[in-house]
Amino acid sequence: MIRRITAHTNKAFRCVQTFCLSRFSPYSRIMRGIHVLVGLTALLLFLPAHAGHSPPNIILQIFVQTGGQGMSSTQATTIALPPRGEVIQIRALPEITEHELIDAQADASGAVHLRFNHIGQVVLSAFTAQNQDRIMVIMLNGYVIYAPIIDEQITTGELIIPHPIKPEALQALQETARRNVEKAGKS
Q1: Domain of residue 129, CATH code
Q2: Are 31 and 71 found together in one domain?
Q3: Does residue 135 surpass a pLDDT of 80?
Q4: CA torsion sign, 63 to 69 to 73 to 75?
Q5: Which is higher by pLDDT, 15 or 151?
Q6: CA–CA separation, 100 vs 120, rounded Å?
Q7: Mean per-residue pLDDT for 79-108?
Q8: How far is CA 184 from the centre of its chain?
Q9: How many C-alpha atoms does 79 have within 13 Å on its Cβ side?
Q10: For the chain, how many structural domains are there in total?
Q11: Gap between the Cα atoms of 179 and 171, Å rounded
Q12: pLDDT confidence of residue 69
């Protein structure tokens, strides 16, 4: 069935053809089937995961301060460091991420020790050697948790955050490190 709809535009009339799909036409059954499939797919993609069924979401990123001269906005970004809000530019891409983490432990004083795999160790050693007197920014889930000035090269592959972090965040880091070690053992 074809209907004609008229629309009033600038005192002139024009006809616009639309197609009306009745529930009896074979085309509309196909379209309803497609709508059901799309709806179910969207439902499965956007449902929250149940506890114990998905890995914890933790994003650890380690950046280094840059002068920003000659860098585009895709290469450097501006951030404010807590608590005073000092504004610095960091490289847009992190030097190290949670994917290189192999251990996260808190000591008796509450300091958090982060150890990295060989790739993380090499990168940490290189960027701390090349960027002395610049700020290293450690971010957890998008929040700056520690931003020291690099004063010497770190060759051990271990970073120490001198203050405690939330227990949930530490546990998520430990689980991420455990998964990274298991994945490395399988390959």
Answers
A1: 3.30.1360.200
A2: no
A3: yes
A4: negative
A5: 151
A6: 5
A7: 95
A8: 21
A9: 22
A10: 2
A11: 12
A12: 79
Single out the residue of 137, 145, 134 nearest to residue 169, CA to CA. 145
Whether pTM > 0.85 for this model: the answer is no
Task: Tell me the two tokens of residue 111.
Answer: 């300091």
Q: Any idea which residue has 């449902």 for tokens?
A: 47
pLDDT above 70 as % of the chain: 70
pLDDT tens readout for residues 11-69? 433 433 333 444 444 545 555 555 555 555 544 454 444 444 455 589 999 999 998 77
Tokens representing 47 are 């449902």
Question: How far apart are alpha carbons 60 and 99 in whole angstroms?
Answer: 8
Let me know whether 75 and 159 are in one domain.
Answer: yes
Cβ atoms of 161 and 138 within 8 Å: the answer is: yes
Residue 55 domain flag: no
Q: Write out the two tokens for 21.
A: 């799909």
Q: What is the pLDDT of residue 31?
A: 54
Higher-confidence position of 12 and 142:
142
Residue type, 9: T
The dihedral sign for the CA sequence 132, 133, 137, 138:
positive
Amino acid at 63: F
Q: In terms of Cα–Cα distance, which of 37, 54, 59, 49 is closest to 173?
A: 59
Residues 101, 29 share a domain: no
Output the CA angle 141-145-147, nearest 5 degrees.
125
